Amino acid sequence: MTGYIPGEQPDSPDIIKLNTNENPLPPSPAVQTALDDISADSLRRYPPPTAMELRKAIADHHRLDEENVIVTNGGDELLRLVLGTFVEHDESVAVAEPTYTLYKVLAQAYGCGFISFKLKNDWSFPDNFADELNSSGAKLLLLPNPQAPSGHLIPAAEISALADAFEGLILIDEAYVDFVDPALQHDCVELIRNRQNVLLLRTFSKGYSLAGLRMGYGLGASSLIGPMQSKTKDSYNTDLIAQKLALAAIRDQQYASKSWELVRQEREQLRKNLGDLGFGCSPSQSNFILVTMPPGIDAESLYLALKKHGILVRFFNEDGLQNCLRISIGAPEENQKLLAAIKRIIQ
Ligand SMILES: *Cc1c(COP(=O)(O)O)cnc(C)c1O
User: Fold this and answer.
1) pLDDT at position 7
2) Nearest atom of ligand 1 to the alpha carbon of 206
3) Nearest-CA neighbor of 257 among 156, 175, 182?
C-alpha cells in the first residue's frame, strides 16, 4: 500500500500556508487562559478516560446526550475507530471520488475492501447511488460534507434520503461544516436523532483553530457510539491538556462564529478576485476553494511558482484534479499576497 501524503508543514513562519486548511485566525483567548491554568503536576495522573466534562459540553452544544458523543484524538482517530469497530476484514468501505485520500489508506491499513464510485462532474452523487451501494455490499460509506476537495455542500435532505435507502452505515465527515453559510440552515445533526446508521465526524482542527491540539469528536445514536466508547477506543485516547483546551474552545461560540464569518467573507472575495483573473472557482461552503486553471496555465507549474514566492497551496497529482489547485482561505493580508503573486506569475 501507499501511505497518506499529508500537506507540507514547513518550519519557517514566513511561509504563507494555504495548503492544509488550517484556520487563519488564532484560537479563542479562552484557550490561552485555559492553557495558562494547567500545572505540570496535573499531568502526573491519567486523564479522565471518558472525557465526560467535554462530552457534556459538546452534547449540550448540539442538544444531544453524552451517550451520543465520543471524543477522539483528532477527527482522523474517529475514522480509524469506525473502521475498526464496524467493518470486518471481509467487508468493504465505499467512497465517491474525488474525496479525502486518507479514506483509501485507512481501508488498506485495516485490510478491508475499498469500493470507489465516481462523483459526477458537478460533484453530485452518481445515479441511483443508494441502489449501487446496496448491490456493491458496502458496509460503510465515508462521505465528506462539505466535500473535500471541492467544498461543495450536499444538502441534508439528499443525505437523509440516502441514509434511508442505504443498508449500511454512513459516516458524514463534517470537518468543514462550521464554515457553511448559516443562511442555508444546513443541519445533519437532525439525521442522527432517529437513525441507527448515521455517524457525524467533527473536529476542532479547522473551525476552532486547534489543528495542533488533535481533538475531534463523533456524534451518533448510542448504539453506534457505545461500542467505540466502551470497547474499541484506547482508554486514554485524548490527553488532559487537549480535553481542557477543547472545552474552553467549544464554550466560546461567540468567538468561533466570528472567525467562521470572516472566513466566509474572505472566501467569497477570493473567489471573485480569482474569477476575474480567469480561474474557475466552483462554489464552496468550506474554508478552501478548488480552483481550475485558465487556458494556458498549468496547475503544477503555478503551484511551484507560488512556492518560490513563499506561498504554499495544494496540488493533487491525481485523476480528475490535475488541472486544479486547492487553496485554503487565509487571513485578509495573506489572500492579498496570494493574489498579487498569482498576478505576477501569470503575466
Ligand atoms: C481535517 C479533516 C479531518 C479531520 O482532521 P483532524 O485534524 O484529524 O481532526 C477529517 N476529514 C477531512 C476531510 C479533513 O479535511
Assistant:
1) 82
2) 1
3) 182
